[in-house]
Design a protein that fits this description.
By secondary structure, the chain is mainly α. Among the domains are: 172 residues; 78 residues, no CATH class. The chain contains 30 helices and no strands. Helix 5 packs antiparallel against helix 6. The protein is globular. The termini are far apart.
Length: 545
């Protein structure tokens, strides 16, 4: 061994120039798991200090993530947001925004950060809480967004649009949430930016199609001077992008159908199925006879199955919209076949649900006798449907730790069968059966019993004595309770309970119901509470309905 090597060995380990707290990050995680928040925060801050001092970018991000989680648990949302934006943790920042449904977390100061990921993540939080943005802050954020759009056009801002932390995509996400509250000049600037994009070919998709469509739809709904331009751009986008078709975007087309009709007709002639379906919805007799005949044939032709082979997707809802103007005699076989498919053992629950919804679209054209003829079959699909072999096969791949997983949020179509039965019911006895079955299935339906709520809504005033019970269920049934309470006012205390509901959809439904009814004395305190709601959509619903 050389003398120099021996000398270095004998020196022993050298001391760090910058001392660090070994294991601070692990200690923070362990203390967070044990909910020892103060010691967890101290350890996380030490880990963050060490990462910054040693210029360890990855370690800094991890330390900020765990410190953000600790601050969330400590009810310090603003401090948590500042760390999560710098860590570019999109999932955590969205969850933070959702966990404060009545409190706006103001991160507008981060919109001038020197790096794109902090700005992009801050925009994502604003997008999540767009309904909570105070009126006097909207213009400030809108100015930042317009500056982002101008900077993107000029190529002046460093960004990586393929990443969810992109500042441009974050800005468009925030724009989608705030587009209904922009000034005319701001809305025109946003619309001009979208119109100036390079054309997109068939079967192509932009990362921001959904946000673009939502922003343009809200501009169309709130800016009368820009309706023609906005609807023309929106129809072209929706005809190309299926994922951009949401409740908001379709509502804008429906609201301005007179403007949209010419654009829809052009795409329908080119064979665009969405345009054909939309035109058929507003004018059932406008579809070409050959298109209607093809749709009817698809609905009445029995399914053919091959052992061991299963498929997904039906197209039945679209076809039902195309044929619903036909006479009752032609719709009867279609409705019967749809009910048969909805109870076919070879058909999965997701497809069964589509067949049931398609059947409900045909009910309005049937007379009372024809409806009663199909009620028993719909009730059977709701009460004791045949076991689905398709679902049984997929159930084998549902374990969360499995190498291959097939997961669906709702493997039950009975809620949509109850809705169909409610549409078919013609007398009080049948309505009582629907009501009893709907209550028996509470908790079995997906999305907080949405379809069960729609089924009960078909029963009208028969539910006025159930308002107190409905007010304690999922958001959909609580929304129904708000609609019924606005009309009947009983029980008295339920109104204020719903006006303070944690879910904005419930408060919005209550506000719309109050706006659509004649003001009554028992509504006064509830109206006042909603008029000061932190969510813009609730306040505007109360006035516009």
């Amino acid at each position: 061994m050389l003398p120099l090597e021996r000398a270095l060995r004998d020196m022993g380990p050298a001391r760090r120039i910058v001392p660090v707290a070994e294991g601070a990050y692990g200690n923070a995680l362990e203390d967070l798991r044990g909910r020892m928040l103060r010691s967890a925060a101290i350890s996380a801050q030490r880990a963050l200090r060490d990462a910054v001092a040693t210029s360890d970018w990855v370690a800094e991000g991890r330390a900020r993530q765990v410190l953000g989680a600790i601050l969330v648990e400590s009810d310090e949302p603003l401090l948590a947001a500042r760390h999560l934006t710098r860590a570019a943790d999109i999932a955590a920042i969205r969850e933070l925004g959702r966990s404060y449904p009545r409190h706006f977390i103001d991160v507008t100061s981060d919109l001038v950060a020197p790096n794109y990921w902090t700005v992009g993540t801050a925009y994502r939080l604003i997008a999540t809480q767009a309904d909570l943005v105070p009126d006097d802050v909207v213009e400030k954020i809108a100015d930042y967004i317009v500056a982002e759009l101008n900077g993107a056009e000029a190529g002046q801002l460093a960004d990586l649009r393929a990443f969810s932390t992109s500042r441009y995509r974050g800005a468009l996400s925030a724009l989608a949430g705030l587009a209904g509250r922009l000034s005319t000049s701001e809305a025109e600037a946003a619309l001009a930016h979208f119109e100036g994009q390079s054309p997109v070919g068939a079967d192509r998709h932009r990362f921001h199609d959904e946000d673009e469509a939502t922003a343009v739809a809200r501009i169309a709904l709130n800016q009368s001077a820009l309706v023609q331009r906005a609807i023309g751009h929106l129809v072209a986008l929706l005809a190309r992008s299926q994922s951009a078709r949401s409740n908001t975007t379709l509502q804008a087309v429906d609201h301005h159908i007179r403007v949209a009709r010419d654009y829809l007709t052009e795409y329908a002639h080119e064979g665009n199925s969405w345009a054909q379906e939309t035109l058929a919805f507003h004018d059932p007799g406008a579809s070409p006879p050959e298109v209607v005949e093809e749709a009817l044939n698809r609905l009445i032709t029995p399914l053919s199955h091959q052992a061991g082979v299963y498929s997904m997707g039906t197209g039945a809802v679209r076809d039902s919209m195309l044929v619903r103007a036909l006479p009752s005699t032609q719709l009867q076989p279609a409705l019967a076949e749809l009910l048969h498919r909805a109870n076919d053992p070879h058909v999965g629950s997701s497809d069964r649900g589509e067949y049931l919804i398609a059947a409900s679209n045909l009910v309005q054209q049937l007379d009372k006798a024809d409806r009663g003829r199909h009620f028993a079959a719909a009730l059977l699909c709701a009460s004791s449907p045949a076991v689905s072999n398709h679902d049984d096969v997929e159930q084998q791949f549902s374990h969360k730790l499995g190498a291959m997983r097939i997961a669906y949020p709702n493997r039950d179509s009975r809620d949509r069968a109850v809705f169909l039965a409610a549409c078919l019911a013609t007398d009080e006895a049948q309505r009582a059966q629907v009501r009893s079955l709907a209550y028996a299935l509470l908790g079995a339906g997906g999305d907080s019993d949405y379809w069960l709520a729609r089924a009960l809504q078909q029963l009208g005033g028969a539910l006025k004595d159930d308002v107190g019970f409905l007010a304690g269920q999922g958001w959909a049934l609580r929304s129904l309770a708000g609609i019924l309470w606005a009309e009947h006012g009983s029980p008295p205390q339920v109104g204020m309970k719903l006006a303070n509901d944690v879910d904005v959809r419930v408060r919005r439904a209550l506000g719309e119901a109050l706006a659509g009814s004649v003001a009554k004395e028992f509504q006064a305190s509830v109206r006042d509470r909603l008029a000061h709601d932190p969510c813009y959509s609730v306040r505007i619903a109360l006035h516009e309905g």
